[in-house]
């Protein structure tokens, strides 16, 4: 485990878009995270949602994102509840739990950047306007994006978001993306 002072120094380095944990995070992406991304649960969920959302225009995407944001913290959460109830979300929550704190969150998006499944509630529904999606899915199969190391406000832990393309195992074509929050203090 890395002391917080060292992590804080890492944060300063990472704010200049370098991520001193890139070797460990890339290894994790190519191993455990890739296994989650290519699991039958994730691939099936992304394919099903792509079939549903392929015709969505930007107005529909914006409306869903607005609905999601309004539901965060509200007592009535139909869109959030439906997403968290999906078998793929339950699967992702189990993977987060089994990581022993290494993974703080896991979420998967479709070809439009819309949430498909997630271990925890995200602040928004559309990730397509963010680097985590823009630097993974559109870049094609094998693309990995490492976010800067930042202090998570809720846990006070230092983490980096690792994003990569989810591909169809039959065709090798990109179908979505996965993002995993990784607690860098728990990296070896």
Global geometry: globular
CATH superfamily grouping: PAS domain
What is the beta-strand fraction?
15-25%
How many strands appear in the DSSP assignment? 6
Quaternary structure state of the chains depicted:
single chain
What is the H/E string? HHHHHHEEHEEEE
Distance between the termini: 7 Å
Cα radius of gyration in angstroms? 16 Å
Q: What is the CATH class? A: Alpha Beta
What is the number of independent domains?
1
Q: What structural category arises from helix and sheet content? A: alpha+beta
In which range does the helix fraction lie? 40-55%
CATH topology: Beta-Lactamase
Q: Quick check: average pLDDT?
A: 90
Described by strand count, sense and barrel closure, the largest sheet is: 6 strands, antiparallel
Structure description:
41% of the residues lie in helices and 19% in strands. It contains 7 helices and 6 strands. It has helices at residues 4-14, 22-37, 40-53, 58-71, 78-84, 87-98, 131-134; strands at 103-109, 115-118, 144-146, 150-151, 158-167, 174-183. Strands 1, 2, 3, 4, 5 and 6 form a 6-stranded antiparallel sheet that branches. Strand 5 (158-167) and strand 6 (174-183) form a beta hairpin. Mean pLDDT is 90; it is low at 1-17.
Summarize the entry for a quick read.
This protein has 188 residues and is an alpha+beta fold.
Please describe the structure with a list of short key phrases separated by commas or semicolons:
188 residues, alpha+beta, Beta-Lactamase, 7 helices, 19% strand, disordered N terminus
């Amino acid at each position: 485990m890395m002391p917080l002072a060292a992590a804080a120094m890492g944060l300063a380095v990472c704010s200049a878009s370098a991520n001193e944990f890139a070797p460990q995070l890339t290894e994790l992406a190519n191993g455990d995270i890739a296994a989650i991304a290519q699991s039958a649960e994730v691939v099936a969920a992304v394919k099903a949602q792509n079939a549903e959302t392929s015709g969505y225009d930007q107005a529909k995407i914006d409306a869903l994102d607005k609905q999601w944001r309004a539901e965060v913290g509200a007592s009535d959460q139909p869109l959030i509840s439906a997403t968290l109830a999906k078998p793929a979300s339950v699967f992702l929550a189990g993977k987060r739990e089994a990581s022993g704190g290494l993974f703080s969150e896991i979420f998967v998006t479709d070809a439009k950047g819309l949430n498909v499944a997630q271990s925890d509630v995200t602040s928004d529904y559309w990730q397509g306007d963010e680097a985590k999606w823009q630097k993974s899915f559109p870049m094609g199969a094998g693309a990995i994006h490492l976010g800067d190391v930042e202090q998570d406000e809720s846990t006070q832990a230092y983490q980096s978001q690792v994003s990569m393309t989810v591909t169809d195992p039959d065709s090798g074509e990109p179908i979505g993306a996965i993002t995993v929050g990784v607690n860098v203090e728990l990296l070896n």
